[in-house]
Amino acid sequence: MQRANPESESLKNGLAVSYFKLGEIYQSMGKLPEALRYFEQQTSLFEELQRANPESESLKNGLAVSYSKLGEIYQSMGKLPEALRYFEQRSKLGEELQRANPESESLKNGLAISYEKLGGIYQSMGKLPEALRYFEQRSKLGEELQRANPESVALANGLAISYYKVGMVHGEMEHLEEAWQYLKQAEHIWAILAESFADTPEYSRNLGIVRQWLARLSGNES
């Protein structure tokens, strides 16, 4: 149908959604080359649609999701430069969307996740200053989200994770005072969560890990 109506936006959008679903199925089956092929086809269609409608928030958001999926696949395949390129494109679109809608929690959260992925890739590549920059940006957004939703356990945990990652990168860079400060912030949040949600072992486990690192930094590791 799309070949018979190549300019139809609705048909092109429907086909893009179909490619996305196929990509996700192949991804869940661990068939990454096949998943990559369908996510690339989806991305190509969204790029065409977005060029024709550059002000469309929904198309820009769809393209951002496409870039993120390509980044995930390339990362899973161990192709970090390619993953980095797509996550950077995803972050660029996320920043545009967030500037246009600064109060949108979902856009801010999506951008925070994107920064976290970029930080993780740069860290894996040994590029610590770049990793630190993105992890710090992720923490800043996490703080904004948590202030707006102080009762959200998921946001509090996400913020603790981001503090932990910033602290670990500072530690790798031998910035011990900064590492200590961020790890203490992570400890504070996880201590509250571990006490409030004793039936969720993740929080106690994370609390134990961060306290081990704090003990190492203080020289009191047993």
If you had to describe this structure to a student in words, what would you say it looks like?
This protein has nine helices and no strands. By secondary structure, the chain is mostly helical. Helix 8 packs antiparallel against helix 9. The longest helix has 21 residues. The radius of gyration is 20 Å and the shape is elongated. The mean pLDDT is 93.
Summarize the structure.
The chain is mainly α and 222 residues long.
How many angstroms separate the termini?
68 Å
Mean model confidence by pLDDT: 93
Low-pLDDT runs of 5+ residues are: none
The overall strand count is 0
Give the helices and strands as they follow along the chain: HHHHHHHHH
Instruction: Determine the strand fraction and express it as a percent band.
Output: under 5%
Helix content: over 70%
Give the overall silhouette.
Answer: elongated
